[in-house]
Design a protein that fits this description.
Elements: E1 10-11, E2 17-21, H1 24-27, H2 40-45, H3 64-78, E3 82-86, H4 89-92, H5 103-118, E4 122-128, H6 134-137, H7 146-162, E5 168-173, H8 175-182, H9 198-225, E6 228-240, H10 245-267, H11 275-287, H12 300-306, E7 313-324, H13 338-342, E8 345-347, H14 364-377, E9 383-387, H15 399-417, E10 422-428, E11 447-449, E12 458-460, H16 462-473, E13 475-476, H17 483-489
Parallel strand pairs: 2-3, 2-10, 3-4, 4-5, 5-6, 6-7, 7-9, 9-10
Antiparallel strand pairs: 1-13, 7-8, 11-12
Helix pairs in contact: 3-5, 7-9, 8-9, 14-15, 15-16
Bound molecules: 4-nitrophenyl beta-D-glucopyranoside.
4-nitrophenyl beta-D-glucopyranoside binds next to strand 6 and strand 7.
Length: 490
Amino acid sequence: DPVLSKRSIRKFPKGFKFGASTAAYQIEGGWNEDGKGISIWDVATHMETTPIRDGSNGNIAADSYHLYKKDVEILKELGVDFYRFSVSWTRILPQGFSNYINQAGINYYNNLINELIQNNIVPFLTIYHWDLPQELQKLGGWTNPYIIDVFADYAKILFDHFGDRVKFWITINEPKQICYEGYGSDLKAPLVNMTGIAEYMCAKNVLLAHAKVYRIYDEEYRKKQNGKIGISISCTWYEPASDTIDDHQAALDARQFDWGQYAHPIFSKEGDFPHELKHNVAAKSAEQGYSYSRLPELSASEVAFIRGTSDFFGMNTYTTKMAYRDASVDGMFPVPSYRDDMGSVLVKDPTWPQAQSSWLQEVPWGFHKLLKEVNKLYDNPPVYITENGWSSSGGLLDEDRIQFLRNYLNALLDALDEGCNIKAYTVWSLIDNFEWLNGYTEKFGLYEVEFSSPDRTRTPRKSAFIYKEIIRSRILDPNFEPEKYVEERK
Ligand code: PNW
């Protein structure tokens, strides 16, 4: 195995950046404070029959709305180069629209950004990480093309207020999770659950909204503000379960449905949705009696508008799955559905280390293959790993997270050696937080948060000391042991 054999002390290249990541709804709390409006996650978590595994919500979460200085303190302690956080749309625009700006929301993010800068931490701002204003959901949210202009209005307000100090922007976090999980299933708010239809309508609007915001930044702000702007796409590696032609096609289709759907229109030379997606959805739609493909078309001018609209490839990546295809696929999935359109069966390998999250297994060689594939498909774009991390059930001695972190960074170093243009790595997450439908049952933090305490005390896990040393030394040393934990073991 080319990845694991190189387990020696390795150095990161000059200029490589390290960060940590969070998202507004998952950490802030203050859900109805100081004029904030209601988002689809406020609605989902307050439903009478809760869809959240432990019945919890983000009303207080890690209370970062009040404790942001503590967050900056621990970021400083870790020594990160940058902090990736997201802005709550309804804190700034309570109804979603730009006619009324809530000054308290502007103040909160000004305070956070200024605190970061004072501590030499670069702010990396995600404009949209899933907390859509409920007022816009009433209009259909991301399935209504009206969202494109409304989103652009919101983004301009952020550029106007924060762009003097924020030089790194993510337009949209993880289109697939927004569209497939939110509209094609009930795995995320707004729980629309209309697969085969809604996730594709969403995909087109997300791409156009992203592209519009990129072009506005490029044309109206870049000269003055001199920043970089891109999108974060969640990418799972799909490995053929065997060497048959069918299994290779199953893995390829899975990759193109999962992330090619969003990456190909933006990063490929020819633009547009990938061939596999267009072909499969059109063929299935015709078979099923639809008079047109359930995948909306992108016109030639839309293709051109979307293509090339990202200064870097923002990659959120966690895991790998096996893909196969055989006669058993027939009738396996509902019709119509995204999964039926894809036509691949996706399975876990029980021998891979398993995290607390059911979908998450440690597969460093899959990360390596993913980096190589993105390099090949999209002509070696600059890649920022904008999320990567591991969930546990809790506890401070998180050896499994440390192993994950080291093995994935080792795979990243291999990809760098082989010519991939990877610029930055961001761990998910800085602190334990509200893990969407899984509530507080999965802990992703380098720092533990005591959710039962009104102070929401943040305590470094062992992995925090490991990450801190990696950042300090810019070296991956598999034998490093932090003093505190060496002490504790004696
Ligand atoms: C991300 N996958 O979602 C989100 O951006 C975070 O808000 C979230 O807390 C974190 O990961 C952990 O769940 C993803 O299976 C979840 O490929 C799963 C996948 C991708 C992204």
